[in-house]
Design brief:
Blueprint: H1 5-12, E1 17-18, E2 20-24, E3 31-35, E4 38-43, E5 46-53, H2 57-65, E6 67-72, H3 78-84, E7 101-103, E8 109-111, E9 116-128, E10 131-143, E11 150-153, E12 156-159
Antiparallel strand pairs: 1-11, 2-3, 2-6, 4-5, 5-10, 6-9, 7-8, 9-10, 11-12
The structure holds flavin mononucleotide (FMN).
Length: 167
C-alpha cells in the first residue's frame, strides 16, 4: 500500500537528528540553512552528503560556487539554528551577524565555535523531487569538541543528556 506524505512526515518526526547549518557563498553574498538531512558518506576519501530543497536560497549558490560547509551545532547555537531556518525573518548575509565566522582553505564560511565543521567541494548532485543530494568532498575540518550536540526531535530542539549506563 502506498504511504502518503503526511504519514511519512509523521514517522520522520520520531527520528532524532543532529542539527547542522549548511553555509555557502563569498563575503557579502553568503547564505545558508539549518539542516538535519546531512550524513557521512565515505571516509576514504572523506565525503558527506547534504539534502537541500531546491527552493532554499543556498541551493543555487552551492551549484554556482561548487562549495559548501557543514557546521554541526551545539546547544549554545540554538539562536543560530533558528536564524538559519528563517524563523526570525532574516535572509542571506544578515543571518551571519550574531556569530563568528571564519574560512578554512579559502572555502565556504565556517562557524568558529561549531562542534565540528566540514569544508567541502561539490563532487556531485543528485536531484530527487523537491531536493538535491549534494555530495561533498571534504577539504578541511575543524572541531571545537565543546558543548552538547543540538538535536531536533518531534518538532522541537533539545540536547543529549546523560549517556545510558553500559551493562
Ligand atoms: C530542524 C530543521 C531542520 C531542517 N532541515 C532541512 C534540511 O535538511 N534540508 C533543507 O533543505 N531544509 C531544511 N530545513 C528548512 C530550512 O532550514 C529553511 O527552509 C530555510 O529557511 C531555507 O533557507 P532560505 O530561507 O534561505 O531559503 C530545516 C529546518 C529546521 C528547523
Amino acid at each position: 500500500m502506498a504511504v502518503d506524505a503526511a504519514e511519512f512526515r509523521r514517522c520522520m518526526r520520531d527520528v532524532a537528528g543532529a542539527v547542522a547549518v549548511i553555509t555557502c557563498g563569498q563575503d557579502g553574498m553568503r547564505t545558508g540553512l539549518t539542516a538535519t538531512a546531512v550524513c557521512s558518506l565515505t571516509d576514504q576519501p572523506p565525503m558527506l552528503l547534504a539534502c537541500v530543497n531546491s527552493t532554499a536560497s543556498a541551493h543555487a549558490v552551492i551549484r554556482e560556487t561548487g562549495r559548501f560547509a557543514v557546521n554541526i551545532l551545539s546547544d549554545a547555537h540554538l539562536p543560530v539554528a533558528n536564524r538559519f531556518a528563517g524563523r526570525d525573518g532574516s535572509k542571506g548575509e544578515t543571518r551571519f551577524s550574531d556569530a563568528r565566522w571564519v574560512r578554512l582553505e579559502d572555502g565556504a564560511p565556517v562557524l568558529a565555535e561549531a562542534m565540528a565543521s566540514f569544508d567541502c567541494l561539490l563532487e556531485a548532485e543528485h536531484c530527487h523531487g523537491s531536493h538535491s543530494i549534494f555530495v561533498g568532498r571534504v577539504q578541511a575540518v575543524a572541531a571545537s569538541g565543546d558543548g552538547r550536540p543540538l538535536l531536533y526531535h518531534a518538532g522541537r530542539f533539545g540536547t543529549f543528556q546523560e549517556p545510558l549506563a553500559v551493562l
